[in-house]
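Researcher: Here's a chain I'd like modeled. Treat it as a single chain, no partners, no ligands.
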Amino acid sequence: MTSNLSRLLAGAGLLLVAVPAIVQAQQATVVSGRIMSNLQAPLQGVSVSIPSLNLGGYTNAEGRYSFTVPASASGRTVTLSARRIGYQAQSAEIAL
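Model: Modeled as a single isolated chain. Structure tokens:
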């Protein structure tokens, strides 16, 4: 009986050590980039999003955007969409 208890405690100790390492290994992903016009001018106010994750943001005056995707979505392939009035919407598949 003491042998079974020792094994259980040893297994629980290993689990307590392994869980923080696993959680730390899964980190959030930052999606960032720059949106430019056909004339290579930066586009401000473009909506850039990952619709399937309900995440996104807008480009700044330099055409740059950045947002954070939770670690739970890591390893997935998703569609990144860019939209702005007066321009044709564009999308691309990206791996997180």
